[in-house]
Each structure stands twice: as structure tokens, then as C-alpha cells.
Write a structure and sequence with these properties.
The chain has 329 residues and is an alpha/beta fold. It has two domains: 143 residues, Rossmann fold; 166 residues, 3-Layer(aba) Sandwich (Rossmann fold). 34% of the residues lie in helices and 20% in strands. The relative contact order is 0.13.
């Protein structure tokens, strides 16, 4: 059942569930941060409206910098701000930042521990009709490997506000991952988010499998849990919005008595959140594990619903692998 202690949206499984884009949460929270801190500056590479930083631009034009289609230059400028007392938010599509300008991020931001927040928008298959070139499916892997870099992937609008607030209130490099389309609102303003902590959103006294999900795929994991419960199959579903840092002790404590694990993400399985969970468990708690995600392949053009179905990142794909795990002993 849903964890009542987390004040989650009670209408999560309703056909009329509220839907909002995580990029909207980013844009809304940036304005609040700008109100509170005069050292907040925002940069973009010709994508103010798409990344929702146009809201900040309208209110604080003197602290907004349009860098044009020059992602490497944008992040280098942001790094300069970040080592000189400003807190810089750099906003672009994830295929371009960190995709195109990864080396600049590595050398100017991560290496110098500069106070820069890299916001990667339109991540994953959700970029849909734009096709494989614009579907960032490698960005978590690119960013979690960098020293000093923290990596956050919110599950919905309200958590997007919270990860943006967290980045805005803490020094150092952050990578924030956002998606384009509207998705179900899972949390509420009262739902907790703490950097480095992970929370069980669906709980059971005797789970038969532990599911770790990140980003909007958490919704499909919760939907799968609710459907399987009707069949007498119990899951525990954990939101991994804080990918780096992550609470390793919490992960191990949840798995040690179950030893059957499924990870779910809109990202390459290699190097992603699932790889991270596997790394932790291989050292601390060897388990049977299956992965929902992209398996060494690019996406393609299509509607979002078509793509998540084709690549089995929806509740049907999750349920299929749960059945597979339950057969193992």
C-alpha cells in the first residue's frame, strides 16, 4: 500500500490524476530561489522557454544570461560565476548539457568544485517525437562518474521543486534531470525530500521483491505494485530521486531479507541507477536482480506512450520481470 507517512497523492491511480511536467517545477522554484538569494544567476543556451527559465528571466533580467547555441561556453561562464560567489543554474537539453559539453563540465565545474547546477531537460524517451538524437539516455552515467557531482532525478512536479531548492541551498556541482511531458503528480508539498535519502513509497510487511525506480518511472512501479497486490504478490517500491549521494545502508537494509530486486529507469541500464544499485548489492548483499531500462540501444521517434510500451518501461514490462524474479530461488 502507499506509505501514508509520506503524504502522497491519494488520487495517484485515478484516471483524473493531476499531471504536470517536472521542468515546470524547476522553473517555478528558480523564481522562489531568486527571491531569497540575490546571488542566484541563471544561464541558458537558446532554450529559455523550453527549460522554463523564462519565468526567472522575466522577473530577474539582470541575473539571467542568454548564451546562445554554445553549451560549452555557457557552462564555462557558469563555472566562472560559481567560483566567484554566485550560485549558477545552467539550463539546456540533456543531450547538449551534459551530452555535448561533458568535458567542459568535468574540467571547469567538477574539477574546480564550482557552485554550478547543471539542469538537463528533455531527458529520456519522453522527448518522444524528437527522436533518438534528442533522447538523452546516457546522462545519469555521464554525471554520476564525476567527482564532486551530485545527481538528482525527481519523480514529479513537487519533487522537482524540492530538488531545485536543495541544489539552490547547497554549495557545489549538481546535476538535475528533468523531462518534457506532463506526468502524474505522485507527491505533495508535504512529502519529504532530503539529499542523500531514499524513501519507500509502497510498503508491505512481507515484500517478495524490492523495486527501485527513479524519475517518472516511479509511477509505473507504483501502478505495477497496486495491480500485483490484487494477485497476492507483495512489493516494496523505493523512490531513488537522490542517485548521488545515495543511502547505501538503507538500500541494503531493504534487500537483505528479500534478495530479489528490480530497478526501473528511463535511461541506459549500463551506468544508470540500476547499475548503481547492482554495484552496492554486489559488495554488500548479493541478490537476484533484473533491470527495466534501455538495453544498449537508442530510442526512436514516436509518441511517449508508444515508446514506453515498446521498450517495456511501463507497468506491463515491470510486471513481466517481477514474475521472472519470483521464479528464482
Amino acid at each position: 500500500m502507499l506509505n501514508d507517512e509520506l503524504f502522497l497523492n491519494k488520487n495517484i491511480f485515478s484516471d483524473s490524476v493531476e499531471k504536470k511536467a517536472t521542468r515546470e517545477g524547476y522553473g517555478d522554484e528558480l523564481v522562489i530561489l531568486g527571491d531569497e538569494n540575490n546571488n542566484i544567476v541563471v544561464l541558458t543556451a537558446d532554450l529559455a522557454e523550453s527549460t522554463k527559465v523564462d519565468k526567472f528571466q522575466k522577473k530577474y533580467p539582470d541575473r539571467f544570461f542568454e548564451c546562445g547555441i554554445a553549451e560549452q561556453s555557457m557552462v564555462a561562464v557558469a563555472a566562472g560565476f560559481g567560483v566567484n560567489g554566485k550560485r549558477a543554474f545552467s539550463s539546456s537539453y540533456a543531450t547538449f548539457s551534459p551530452g555535448k559539453n561533458w568535458e567542459t563540465i568535468r574540467t571547469t565545474v567538477a574539477y574546480n568544485d564550482s557552485d554550478v547546477k547543471i539542469a538537463g531537460h528533455h531527458a529520456g524517451l519522453m522527448t518522444a517525437q524528437d527522436g533518438a538524437t534528442h533522447q538523452a539516455l546516457e546522462d545519469i552515467a555521464l554525471m554520476r562518474v564525476l567527482p564532486n557531482m551530485k545527481v538528482l532525478c525527481p519523480c514529479d512536479y513537487y519533487e522537482a521543486m524540492k530538488v531545485t531548492k536543495t541544489a539552490g541551498e547547497n554549495y557545489g556541482p549538481f546535476y538535475l534531470r528533468f523531462t518534457r511531458e506532463v506526468t502524474p503528480v505522485i507527491t505533495t508539498e508535504a512529502t519529504p525530500f532530503t539529499l542523500g535519502e531514499n524513501y519507500s513509497y509502497w510498503i508491505s510487511e512481507k515484500p517478495q521483491c524490492i523495486v527501485f525506480a527513479t524519475g517518472y518511472t516511479l509511477y509505473y512501479a507504483l501502478l505495477a505494485a497496486s495491480l500485483l497486490k490484487k494477485e497476492g504478490i507483495e512489493l516494496e517500491v523505493i523512490n531513488i530521486s537522490s542517485i548521488k549521494p545515495i543511502n547505501k545502508e538503507f538500500i541494503v537494509s531493504k534487500v537483505k531479507n528479500v534478495r530479489k530486486v528490480l530497478t526501473v529507469e528511463d535511461h541506459q541500464v549500463a551506468g544508470g541507477m540500476g547499475s548503481l544499485i547492482a554495484e552496492i548489492l554486489s559488495q554488500e548483499c548479493p541478490s537476484f536482480i533484473e533491470f527495466v531500462g534501455m538495453n544498449d540501444q537508442f530510442g526512436e521517434s514516436g509518441t511517449f506512450s508508444e515508446l514506453v510500451s515498446k521498450y517495456s518501461i511501463d507497468e506491463k514490462g515491470i510486471i513481466k520481470l517481477i514474475y521472472k524474479l519470483l521464479k528464482k530461488s
